[in-house]
Amino acid sequence: SPSLGRRRREVAEDEVEETPQEKKLRLAKQYLEELRQYEEEEEARPGDLIGDRLKEDVLEQKGRLQRLVAKEVQPPDPTSIRELRGHQLPVTCLVITPDDKVIFSASKDGSLIKWEVDSGKRLCVVPGGKKGTEEQNMGHASQVLCMAISSDGKYLATGDRNKLIMIWDAATCKRLHIFTGHRDAISGLSFQKGTHQLYSASHDRCVKVWNVAENAYMETLFGHQDIITGLDSLSRECCVTSGGRDGTVRLWKIPEESQLVFCGHQGSIDCIQLINEEHMVSGADDGSVALWGLTKKKPLALAQHAHGMQEAQGLQQPYWISAVAPLRNSDLLATGSHSGSVKLWKCGEGFRKLEPLCDIPLVGFVNSLKFSAAGDFLVAGLGQEHRLGRWWRIKEAKNSICIIPLKQRATAPSPAIPDSS
């Protein structure tokens, strides 16, 4: 009707009234007001709190923030490590919610479990089903290999060997949607920080982009020559992947539909994580851990045989690196293998050096590692077998997740310094 058309035009005119400059000004004022409120809540601590926060936010966006926390971390007491058991088969992946209160874990048995961090209780269990029963049952009917949670804690995404990506409501564990489109196992998932855009990687050698809020497929990116084994992203519209035996790490720039290729490991690159917007860490089955800057094609630092050597079929072989995890925007890293321990590392200034800090004894294949956002605990997903296959079996290992508390030495808080690289 004409009156409805008139109303729509009036609404449209109201929306157009704000120019981009005015919007920027309004958002800046809103941000400063939030910082002022934050300062009042902190009871006006000494120093220029707003200036410090602004400086830290700018450094974080540029990928130059490096909180120096590694030297404060003390080796955890093995008796303080909590073991949570519930999966029948090896744990393959896990995520921690942004508020550090809940852990989601998944396994080769197809099950998902939601755990409460403080009590260790199971808040929800979604059992795995038999192959071909995805429509009748809520859960996966094949091995779950990867998972991701959105930065607002609303959506959980899980990917399985049966080419399916399932989207869940993280609060209720209700399945919302299934994405299909990949032609092989889903091996990596990550939400772009601050959005509901999801990146997925697969053994079909491609990366796909999805909009979870709209249940929509967006695009496919090609480039790897072998199965993709891992994927990660932060707040920029790009993601990084590890390409297994093709020996490359790739940075995908989504808007430009371009990619950068990095080479440095000798073996299959099995895991990758971003440390900040400019640096990343990867691990390979040649036993090496590499630190990368996104502006250099070769690693800034490389630790060979990071977990030592093992005797296999009469030959000396390095322990494969099966998981890596950085504490975001800091100089602290954790790596996992099946060597009987998780190792903590300190990244030197400018990420040009890797120094071992301590070993945390854990028996089994460490298939997934995650730091809590606050950095006060580390979670490891353990199994009798490697996440991607059954090359060895460690019978004495327990299929479980372990919560490792990280105590910091009681000293003055360490300043966040810009990275010099």
TrEMBL record:
Keyword annotations of the record: Acetylation, Isopeptide bond, Methylation, Nucleus, Phosphoprotein, Repeat, Ribonucleoprotein, RNA-binding, rRNA processing, Ubl conjugation, WD repeat
A GO molecular-function descriptor: U3 snoRNA binding
UniProt region (Disordered), positions on chain: 1-22
Pfam family, one: WD40
Record field: transmembrane: none
Domain of life: Eukaryota
CDD domains in alphabetical order: WD40
Positions of WD repeats: 84-125, 137-178, 179-220, 221-262, 262-302
Protein's GO biological process: rRNA processing
Gene3D superfamilies cross-referenced by the UniProt entry: YVTN repeat-like/Quinoprotein amine dehydrogenase (2.130.10.10)
Subcellular location(s) per record: Nucleus, Nucleolus
GO cellular component, as recorded: small-subunit processome
Main localization category: nucleus
Family statement: Belongs to the WD repeat RRP9 family.
Subunit structure: Interacts specifically with the U3 small nucleolar RNA (U3 snoRNA). Binds a sub-fragment of the U3 snoRNA surrounding the B/C motif (3UBC). This association with the U3BC RNA is dependent on the binding of a protein called 15.5K to the box B/C motif. The association of the protein with the U3BC RNA was found to be also dependent on a conserved RNA structure that flanks the box B/C motif. Part of the small subunit (SSU) processome, composed of more than 70 proteins and the RNA chaperone small nucleolar RNA (snoRNA) U3.
Role noted for this protein: Component of a nucleolar small nuclear ribonucleoprotein particle (snoRNP) thought to participate in the processing and modification of pre-ribosomal RNA (pre-rRNA). Part of the small subunit (SSU) processome, first precursor of the small eukaryotic ribosomal subunit. During the assembly of the SSU processome in the nucleolus, many ribosome biogenesis factors, an RNA chaperone and ribosomal proteins associate with the nascent pre-rRNA and work in concert to generate RNA folding, modifications, rearrangements and cleavage as well as targeted degradation of pre-ribosomal RNA by the RNA exosome.
Protein name per the record: U3 small nucleolar RNA-interacting protein 2
Source organism (scientific name): Oreotrochilus melanogaster
